[in-house]
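Last lecture ended with a question: if I hand you only a sequence, what can you say about the shape of the protein? Today we answer it with a concrete record. The protein is Transcriptional regulator. Below, first the input exactly as provided, then the predicted structure, then a couple of comments.
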Amino acid sequence: MVDPWLALEIGVDPAERIAQVGAAHTAFLTGATPRRVREVVRRSWERSMSLDPESSPPVDLVDDTLERYRAGHPLAPVLPIFRDLLGGIAQDGAHLMAVCDTHGRLLWVEGHPGVLRRAEQMNFVPGARWDETHAGTNAPGTALAVDHSVQIFATEHFSRRVQRWTCAAAPIHDPATGRILGAVDITGGDHLATPQSLALVRATARAAEAFLAGLAQVEPDVVQVAALGRDEAQLRVGGRRIRLGRRHSELLVLLVDHPEGRTGEQLALDLYGEGRLHPVTLRAELSRLRRALGPELLDSRPYRLRCRVDADFRTVTDRLERGDPAGGIDAYSGSLLPGSEAPGVVRLRRLVDGQLRAAVLAAADPALLVSWTATPAGTDDLAAWEALARALPPGAPRRPLALARARQLAREYGVTRATSLQPRTQ
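The predicted structure:
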């Protein structure tokens, strides 16, 4: 059975295949249906059709901003693994090793100086955005889009500037959550279109995931809290997974938000509101929470957590504070305990959602706006849909949907907008 993720079948002449796919690419750009093109490539071309095939990807991160982002990225500890497994290839004078984040931004690009100089001509450099939205069909961007390892061969690339290259990439997942952290890629000449190169990036990605899983296991004193997009928080502590009830979830979130500690009265106000203090009930709830967490993790007088906590909602705000809205939207899986009516949780929920929304609107990045409008908090956000309609270029597949949704919401809200929904000119 033919592997659909491999670029060339055994025995196929590479030069002949380059000519066939090149002709199909030219025909596709004139509106014809491409023939004799792999399904994964055809679908990627369709997703890339709003791009200019002569364009180059933009560079999002440079200098200190890039260095800070790389240093704090979850894949930073895995860089020695990438170099051990792919370093020989990266220095042989014919290939490059690259690692990107979940949005296709290249974090590291390494290889022979001569190959690096050639790659710079197409902006294949650290900080550049190589997702399909900005670079069209390419191995790291397409691997992220379809969540599968893939080869992209020569003229299968959507951008003509990239069609002299062949690449293979595989996505890397967070072993705890299953979310995509990024992708690892090897790029070079036509000779990379072999089963061995695809197997190599697949194996490297699996090794990275195994390494990350090992890192999580050697930190039993760190409590991981997942409270976004769910009414009941989930904890990972000391190898255990604990699902808390709603009230205990609210208490935990409030304690995470106040690492300095809270008095019983402060917690009662945050939990029940003014005039509804229940000190006996609160003490009973805290006693049960201590039994669930373990007596060594929860202090009293004041009530505070005694351990280091990694909470998903804190990850969102931390990334936003570093000026990284893409990282914030990537870590956001929904509103904080959306079913909670506890005053302290409601305030914190509005703060997290509001900071993320403001950062996404300010960035005016179509990919970020698409992600935000897909969330429960963003699906009825008129300003976000209008911003998305303006950010998308004419002919983009998503633009008619954005225009229709913005106009629908404006009618529902009884709003007449004076601002134009035409795309912004550069």
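Comments.
1. The chain has three domains: 14-217, 219-363, 364-426.
2. The longest strand covers residues 180-188.
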